[in-house]
Amino acid sequence: MERNVFIENIEKLEKSPVFAMSLGSKELFHSNFWAYLMEQEECRSFITFFFEEITNFDGIRIEREDKNRDLVIFYQGNEYVIENKIKSYPDYSQLVRYSENTKLKRGIITGITEPPFDLPDGWSFISYHNISSFLRTLSISDSHLKMVVSDYCDVLDSINTLMELSLEETSGRLSYWTENIKGLYKVRLMDVYRKIKADDFVIHCEDINQEMNELLQDCPNWKFGIFRSFHNGKSTISFEIQKGSEETYKGKIGVQIEDNQFRIFLELNSGNVGDIFKIGLDENWFDDNFDKKNNRTIFKHPTTMSKNPCSYSGHWVYQYFDTYNDSVEPVEDIQDYGTLKDLIKEYLKKAVHIIKSKGKELFK
């Protein structure tokens, strides 16, 4: 049944002209369309849906990208802000900065899934599902606009359904490769799913953050962080321990997961790739048993790595093993959240040991 629902919603999106127009800029499209609807006489109640205190539309002004805010409604000397987040969760500090504007009366976050943290005072969340449900209640006499709004609601509902099914199918697993989820490529929604899925895993890693901060209490100038980024269509999650700030930076060590690669990395601000790799080998941080022909493993985990070591920018050096490879039978279920977290903790604890025993010598 889920397979049929998945295919059905992908086919709906493929046939939708509104969805085709949205692909140029997924987040900007929605905000622009909402602003357009709010300015239509028959759709004015869409404003009240977000902000029930706005009941008089005389003199109201709606702006897009005002001070980098997605959509701002100016009403009676106050500002009402809508931040649309289809691909990711909002940045908490960004919302706090917006709240420092004394004219900000209230803010709304929109998206597929609710942020995993308590929003700052004055902010609340409205889902795409609820937006679609409200828009379907509007009485629109213009037949063309009515058809466009109906198609738009179908688009929101299909995106929401596909994301819910994808998250349900991969519950407790950092996976992007089920047969159903591969279908997201057809409608260019894999990037949305990858970001949401990566965020979901990071939410489950809060205990790692707490444990690492405790382990580093007696390590001055060292700081642990979990960071997310997205490039080349892939989500990257970094668990890194860094020495020094921007001005006094000495290097970092840790684990990074990108796509199906579980990376063990070391970065020093001096030395070339060969020097840094040798240091990692000497400290047993890197595996010197890898052989492209005879031993394609990193610390006994199968790897598709062909170059040894891998590197970025001449200073960020890494090896990796695979969490998934669809061309071979899996040796172990590394995609499982619990297994992944145990591996991350294992390598981070090893990193802390290196820092405490050789940190002053290596990161200088």
Question: Looking at the structure, what is the overall shape?
Answer: globular
Could you give the distance between the termini? Answer: 59 Å
Q: Work out the helicity level.
A: 40-55%
The average pLDDT is 91
Report the major sheet: 6 strands, antiparallel
Strand element count: 13
Low-confidence stretches: none
Order of helices and strands: HHHHEEEHEEHHHHHEEEEHEEEEH
Protein model, in words:
The protein is built from 12 helices and 13 strands. With 364 residues, it is of the alpha+beta class. It has a 6-stranded antiparallel beta sheet. The protein has a 5-stranded mixed beta sheet with strand order 1-2-3-4-5, sandwiched between helices. Strands 10-11 form a two-stranded antiparallel sheet. Strand 8 (251-258) and strand 9 form a beta hairpin. The mean pLDDT is 91.
